[in-house]
Specification:
By secondary structure, the protein is mostly helical. The chain contains 31 helices and seven strands.
């Protein structure tokens, strides 16, 4: 029996107070996304009153919307259910604090657990599940032009922020040469005629990944040979997809408001924002494929199969992982069919005919066997690329603990079960999975389970890989999975009633907003690179090498004094190397150690030092090389005839004596 309306309102006030205090307490913790540690920064008693104004503002906004929507129903039933969800969301963190305070917490709960955040946000977002859909009022009548205008405004704002964020990290010597530097260096070599996508004279074109599509952006680099060019391109490759999400929702019968909400979910999804910096690795060509892959999905829904093939091949040209997800997606369509379009929103015959496919091919794709052929064909292409492009050795070596060949790795669950399952069933893998899915609304994404099947194999690879960043929310290893996760959520929401896209999009949007206080890539989100800062410069080096610090200003002056960089061949430590992307030769201290033997063999004098005329070494930077190796490198350079040109703040610049 539901209590009176006044009693329900009072109970909501109590539940909201408890929830807001818990939200504030959780926001004070430091959450590390590499090992999923959640570290307290205040004593438990001080956590509820130590929250930031931003977290309180977002919490108050959430509670206001929750009350505004759920109180519309005269029966108060939605609000009553919401009260229980708010209390339920706060219960686990509160229980953990109590158990730790009295010394009764189990061993795995001696410290605040990252799972508390997952629980809290999952149940909190569900508080908007029961509200009557007519609570949206006039907003539901939003038309296409205002919706697109709003979405475009948000795209522009977030693009500017992500660009600025990357630029500031670069100026503060926080971006590593890998991945940002070595992919940009390939563009520079291509544009300047030093070798097509050449990273080093010792390496083939596709030694790590198959990415000929990078040739498409080499001219963009040529227009303005600056890191800022790459920062803009990468930010756009993440943000512009919001338009395609909007188009997919509309093609599936969603209203302009639903399309706007799901487009916003893309922009606010915490992992999307984290991929802008990617734990200081920054950009990877795989990210550029997202735009093409989502365009391919839209073209399938619009029955433009030739355009879909062109878009998909463009995505696959950015990284071979898109071939895997494309093959598996085609297999899912073969098994379950293309997502159903509303009868009032089908493509017109003229729209379907412009792609130029023959009637026979069109018939093939209208029948499921055509998708089976497509899936097999893409799989064959992947095998050919994997075996013939030169990346097999590098990629196989990544799974050395599971086997020494692709077949052995695939059979490792049988022949090395303890290693395989011991790696797969780590709790951090499931926290990673939930961290990707919960921001998409939970129920909706599970309802779209058919498309989730396409992510099972790639996700299993990330779980089985003995590489900590592979299952980190801060890295871009799940890039190829994100479009399918969104497709699963959108199709799942569509199947949950007439207003499913609107209701579950709203749940996903508010969940993303709540999570952004704990992790994410929004202006108010906490730093996602603290672990990298610590690994780079040590526990005391958080302020080291900042653009505005004395050592940072000195280093920037020295880099400028070495201009024109086009006339120099530079060897530098990882955080500094990315500032010499216009040099005629460039390598990092860490990579030099691995490549020096082959460079020696390629030199005309029999010395690897022939390749270099300038060294810039930071003896306090320990992320992509050890300090011991940096010192050894300096001593070897001095023995080879280099002299110290400048030295300060633990940074040494050496040039040839002549």
């Amino acid at each position: 029996m539901i209590p009176s309306r006044r009693v329900v309102f009072v109970l909501f006030g109590i539940a909201a107070t408890v929830w807001l205090a818990t939200y504030g307490a959780l926001s004070t913790r430091l959450n590390l996304l590499l090992n999923y540690a959640s570290l307290p920064t205040l004593l438990p008693a001080w956590e509820p009153i130590g929250s930031t104004l931003t977290s309180l503002a977002i919490g108050a906004l959430f509670l206001t919307l929750t009350f505004r929507f759920n109180a519309k129903d005269p029966s108060s039933a939605p609000l009553q259910r919401t009260n229980w969800l708010l209390i339920g969301a706060a219960s686990l963190p509160i229980l953990g604090s109590i158990l730790r305070h009295v010394g009764a917490a189990p061993s795995f709960w001696q410290q605040p657990h990252f799972g508390e955040l997952i629980w809290f946000t999952a149940l909190s977002g569900s508080a908007l599940f029961f509200y009557p859909i007519d609570s949206w009022g006039r907003c539901r009548s939003l038309t296409t032009r205002p919706a697109l205008a709003l979405l475009t405004s948000f795209v522009a704002i977030i693009t500017i922020f992500w660009t600025y964020q990357a630029w500031q990290m670069h100026q503060d010597f926080r971006l590593g040469f890998n991945d940002f530097g070595h992919f940009t260096w390939r563009l520079a070599n291509t544009w300047n005629g030093r070798g097509v996508l050449l990273e080093s004279p010792t390496l083939p074109m596709f030694w790590d990944h198959f990415n000929p599509g990078m040739l498409l952006i080499a001219p963009v680099w040529g227009l303005a040979q600056s890191p800022l060019t790459i920062f803009v391109v990468h930010a756009l490759s993440l943000s512009l997809n919001a338009w395609l999400i909007y188009a997919i929702v509309r093609r599936l019968g969603g209203t302009p408001l639903a399309g706007l909400i799901w487009g916003m979910v893309w922009l606010l999804h915490p992992s999307l924002g984290l991929w802008n910096l990617a734990f200081t690795y920054h950009w990877h060509p795989v990210t550029l494929g997202v735009l093409f892959f989502l365009a391919s999905i839209y073209c399938v829904l619009d029955r433009r199969y030739s355009w879909s093939a062109i878009c998909f091949l463009s995505a696959a040209s950015m990284e071979e992982g898109w071939l895997v997800i494309g093959s598996l997606t085609a297999l899912v369509i073969f098994l379950f069919g293309v997502p159903h379009l509303d009868t009032n929103d089908k493509p017109t015959p003229s729209a379907r005919s412009i792609d130029g496919l023959s009637a026979a091919v069109r018939t093939a794709f209208s029948q499921r066997w055509g998708w089976l052929v497509t899936s097999i064909s893409i799989a064959i292409i992947f095998v050919c690329v994997y075996k013939l492009s030169g990346l097999a050795e590098f990629q196989t070596a990544r799974f050395a603990k599971l086997g020494d060949s692709p077949i052995a790795i695939l059979l490792s669950p049988i022949y090395r079960p303890s290693v395989f399952f011991g790696q797969v069933f780590q709790i951090r893998n499931f926290l990673f999975l939930l961290g990707l899915l919960i921001p998409l609304g939970g129920i909706a994404v599970l309802k779209g389970w058919k498309f989730l099947l396409a992510t099972a194999l790639p996700m299993g690879v990330l779980f089985a890989w003995d590489h900590q960043p592979a299952a980190s929310l801060a890295f871009h290893y799940a890039t190829t999975l994100m479009p399918i996760l969104f497709l699963a959520a959108i199709t799942g929401a569509k199947s949950l009633g007439t207003d499913g896209l609107l209701r579950h999009g709203n749940i996903a949007l508010i969940t993303c907003l709540l999570i952004s206080i704990f992790w994410g890539g929004l202006p108010w989100s906490p730093s996602s690179t603290l672990e990298a800062d610590g690994q780079s410069y040590g526990a005391e080096g958080i302020t080291l090498r900042r653009e505005t610090s004395s050592d940072g200003r000195w280093l920037h002056r020295q880099i400028k004094s070495l201009e024109p960089h086009e006339e120099r061949s530079v060897l530098a430590t990882g955080r500094i190397a990315g500032h010499f992307l216009r040099a005629k030769f460039l390598d990092t201290a860490g990579q030099w150690r691995e490549r020096r033997t082959e460079l020696r063999e390629l030199s005309s004098t029999g010395s690897e030092w022939e390749w270099v005329d300038t060294l810039v070494l930071d003896h306090q930077e320990n992320f992509q090389q050890s300090c011991d190796w940096t010192m050894q490198l300096q001593q070897e350079a001095l023995a080879a005839g280099f002299v110290i040109r400048a030295e300060a703040h633990g940074i040494v610049i050496l040039t040839r004596a002549d």
